[in-house]
Amino acid sequence: MPAFTPPPGYSRIKAVKSFAELVSTPFGGGVNALCWERTLAGDFGEIVERLGSDEGMATLDEARLGELGLSAAGRAAADAMINDLRRLSDLGLAPVLDCIRSYPRDDDSGPVRTDVYSWHADSAPVEADTWLCTYFGATSEALRNDEALRRADIADTRAELLRIFGGEDDEAFAEFLREHCYDLHYAAAPHARPIPFGIGNLWRIATEWPGSPVPPCIHRAPETLPGDPPRLLLIS
């Protein structure tokens, strides 16, 4: 997979050179995504092969990885993922490492799809960031904020949401949007070019929280098609 390359002239993404810099760099000045670009040693595909072909998602931890009977190259890949789990856990976070063949799809959300395949922002009631790394398979993607339009602000979509709500376009409607996460999902502009996060890169991206100094980083999981390899993804 190609390495991460920020769009020329796009200043909301900043590259850092170490985990310490990834942790300590504040969001501000418009920057809402930090990328520690890395080339990790090891055979991550071997881990996927040893896990078998179960559908859906399988959560991995040190014990599960230790049971796979890996080669030296597979062990190096496992160690890289375990090191990231420990790094984030030491920060007081709760990272999760998954082998993902498919996510549940949201087929019943009406005019706004709210699954992770949709362009969306993460949110929190207090200051919080999202951390993620794709080790194998298709990578997560970001969407430039200036190439995104909140779906609930698109006239036809908003009218349909109002019809479903059955009320006026007021604070109660705004609460309805928040309750169903409709306010967190976006449509890409026709000319938009998604930004791949790349393989092995550890990202820290801004969420939507009260008082955030920057807009959230809009992102999505890649579409998975029949025959596509599973993903190895760390997220917190």
Tell me what you see in this structure.
With 236 residues, the chain is an alpha+beta fold. The protein has one domain (13-146, 193-235). Helices cover 25% and strands 22% of the residues. It has six helices and 13 strands. The chain has a seven-stranded mixed beta sheet. A three-stranded antiparallel beta sheet has the order 5-9-8, with no helix packed on it. α1 (19-24) links the parallel β1 (13-16) and β2 (33-36). The longest helix has 19 residues, at 72-90. The chain starts with 12 loop residues before the first strand and ends with a strand.
List its salient traits:
single chain, seven-stranded mixed β-sheet, globular, 236 residues, 13 strands, alpha+beta, 25% helix
List the helices and strands and how they pair.
Layout: E1 13-16, H1 19-24, E2 33-36, H2 44-51, E3 57-60, H3 62-66, H4 72-90, E4 96-100, E5 119-120, E6 129-136, E7 141-143, E8 148-150, H5 155-165, H6 171-179, E9 185-188, E10 195-196, E11 202-206, E12 218-220, E13 231-235
Parallel strand pairs: 1-2
Antiparallel strand pairs: 2-11, 3-4, 4-13, 5-9, 6-11, 6-13, 7-10, 7-12, 8-9
Helix pairs in contact: 2-4
